Every structure is written in C-alpha cells, then in structure tokens.
Amino acid sequence: MISRLLICALLAALTILQTLPAHAQKTLMVAEPTHGVGYLPLYVAIRNGYFAKQGLDVKVMTVDGGSTHTNAVLTGQAFAFIGGPEHNAYAKLKGGELRAVVNVVDRGNVYLTARTGSEPKPGQPWPAYFKGKSFAVGLYGGTPNSITRYLLKKWGLDARTDVALIEMTTSAVLAAVKGGRAEIGVTSEPLLTQGVKQGLWSEPVINIPQELGPYAYSTLNVRLESIAKEPELVEKFVRGVVQGIKFTYADPEGAAAIAKKEFPTMPLDDLKATLDRTFADGLWSRDGSISAEAWNTGEAVVLAAGILKKPVPYDDIIDTRFVRSANAASN
Predict the structure, then answer these.
(1) Hey, which residues does 268 pair with through a beta bridge?
(2) Quick count: other Cβ atoms within 10 Å of Cβ 104?
(3) Who is most buried in 94, 225, 229, 322, counting CB within 10 A?
(4) Same structural domain for residues 146 and 83?
(5) Do residues 322 and 238 make contact, with C-beta atoms less than 8 angstroms apart?
(6) What phi, psi does 315 have (nearest 5°)?
(7) Angle between helices 292-304 and 143-154 (to 10 degrees)
(8) How confident is the model at residue 26 (pLDDT cuts 50, 70, 90)?
(9) Could you give the CA distance from residue 97 to residue 225 in angstroms, rounded to a whole number?
(10) Residue burial 263-301, b: 16+ Cβ < 10 Å; e: rest
C-alpha cells in the first residue's frame, strides 16, 4: 500500500515538473546606433542560437543619437552597445568606466569617391589632388567625418581653408555629388555601388579598409561593473559573438540567408553589393580580437578630428580576456 502511494506521489510530482516552464534564459539588451549589415555577425549569433546555447536571450534595440547607445549602457538600460571603443574613451575622460570586450568590425567602413570627370591624374599626390575640392561627408562627430579630417591632417591640408567639407547625413552624400555640390563623396555600401551604377563615380579613389588597415571600428562594449560582478555572463556573451563571427566567414551563403531575413526590405542588389564588398575588404574581425594597432588607428582618427581631447591607454578601455578564452575554447 505504501509503495503504491509513493509511486502515485512520484508520478504526480513528475507531471507537475513537466508542466513547469523551462529554466528562464538571462535576457541581455544590446544597443546599436543603426540596424546595418556591418553588424551581421551579431545577428547571426542571435538567429543561429549561439547565445541561447549559453543560456542567454540577446535582444537588439536600435537607438538614435550620437551617444545614446553609450548612455543606454552607462545607465543600465542595456547590457552592451556596439560602436567604436572611442566612446569608452570619451566616457573615461568624464568618469565613466566601459570596456570593449569583443571586436566585430575591424576595418574602417568608409570609401572616398571622385565625381566622374574629377578623378585624380595618374601619379598625382593626394595633397595636390584634394586641395580645393569640396567633400560631401557625414556629420561632425561621425566616423566618416573623423576619418576625412584625419586624412586631411595627414596630408597637411586644413579642413577649414584648403577644402570645403559639406557636412550632411550619410544618406544624402550621393544626392550631393549628383547635384554638383561636391566633387568628393565620402560613403559606404550600398550607396557606393548605387553611385557606380548611376555613373556618378567609379571605384573609390581611396579604400579606407586598405589604406588604414586594422581599425577598431565597431566593438561590443560593456560596463566595467559587469566584468567585475558577472564575469561568467560576459564570457558567455563574448563566446556567442565569436561563434557568430566564425560562422559568417565559414559559411558566407548561410550568413547571406540570415541577412535577407534581417533586412527583408533591402533590395537584393544592395544587399549583395554590401556583402560582396564587406567580404572582399575583410571588414569583419575574424576572431573577435581587438589589437593594440586597431585602437591606435581609431584613437589617432578621433584625436586628429578634435573629438577625443587626449590619448587614452588601450588597457583603460579594452579587455580581451574573454575573447582569448572564447577562441581557446573553440580550438
């Protein structure tokens, strides 16, 4: 009698357990300044379930405004933001503590184009060519603008007197060149290929990914507090990102299929042009590492543009222990 009652009790308990929800995953919010193909490895990690395997439910929220994504993390509204580690440097100089923990875009996603008929002569030095030219470029504070100012300074040209910088939203650059307002367009895909198809310009006169090399353009950044209090959580997050990056390179067709789902309204020609150039120029990091060289370039750009007021050491804004661990685990 006792054994029968015990069996009935166990069966009843098992039935209750089966009806309970599965163990809840830890929800993490990632703030992004725009929803773009450049961040595809992050979206791949989400859609392929790499975060879910770590017990994480990662969601992305797109926020507008120059430092809105940074503030979302500083105020605890988001776990991480995607953007250049220079934002961590800006915060550091104001007393905020943020760290880049994994790299996504390791090249400057910027290209300088010349309006048809305004191309440089063979062998013409860049300072002589660009002096007196008008540039259609993104707004001050944005990376395309900062890179332009960095190059001008490198060439010994004054951004105020030697050239004309016509600052605008990046989406307006093509129209500005088409309308004759500018001879140089500072742009990226898919506008770059759109301009080629319309005959506004040919291939870029300067390919920034090739010109500047490793560049910490878009990293994933968290609060130092998160690293101190929840290092295992940060490690799981980084592991998922690294898996997303490696899948993107290992299976370009699979990554493209995810891109189509992520950007259902983008014309297929635009999506293909963007992916083709991204792979060709190796814009994405291959393993999530953030090299000292990549930060040195990024820092030099924002210092030259006058946005970062003084140098900030690598170790004060970047922590690579988690990406090293993730790569060691995958080998």
Answers:
(1) none
(2) 25
(3) 322
(4) no
(5) yes
(6) -70, -15
(7) 80
(8) very high
(9) 8
(10) beeeeeebbbbbbebbeebebbbebbbbbeebbebbbbb
Those residues whose C-beta lies under 8 Å from the C-beta of residue 143, and which sit 6 or more positions away, are 84, 108, 110, 217, 301
Are both 88 and 186 inside the same structural domain?
Answer: no
Element (H, E) at 28: strand 26-32
34: left (phi over 0), alpha (psi -120 to 50) or beta: beta
User: CA–CA separation, 322 vs 320, rounded Å?
Assistant: 6
Q: Is there a domain that residue 6 lies in?
A: no
Which of these three, 212, 244, 273, is where a domain ends?
Answer: 212
Residue-wise pLDDT tens digits, 32-58:
988 999 999 999 999 999 999 999 999
> Binning pLDDT at 50, 70 and 90, where does residue 141 land?
confident
Beta carbons within 8 Å of 270's beta carbon, 6+ residues apart: 189, 190, 193, 194
pLDDT band at 64 (very low <50, low <70, confident <90, very high): confident
Strands 184-187 and 26-32, bridge-based pairing:
unpaired
The two three-digit tokens of residue 34, written as one number: 């725009």
Considering the domain architecture, whether residues 270 and 129 belong to the same structural domain is answered as no
pLDDT in the model for residue 67: 78
Cross-strand partners of 254? none
Q: Which amino acid is at 201?
A: W
**Measured torsion, CA atoms of residues 120, 126, 129, 134, in degrees rounded to the nearest 10:** 110
One domain for residues 264 and 201: no
Beta bridge partners of 136: 166, 185
Three-state DSSP class for residue 221: strand
Last residue of a domain, one of 212, 247, 272: 212
Q: Do residue 83 and residue 223 come from a single domain? A: yes
CATH number for 188: 3.40.190.10
**How do residues 168-216 score in pLDDT, each as one tens digit?**
998 899 999 999 999 999 999 999 999 999 999 999 999 999 999 999 9
Contact criterion met (CB below 8 Å) for 290 and 329: no
Range of the domain at 157: 111-212
Say whether pTM exceeds 0.90: no
pLDDT (0 to 100) of residue 15: 47
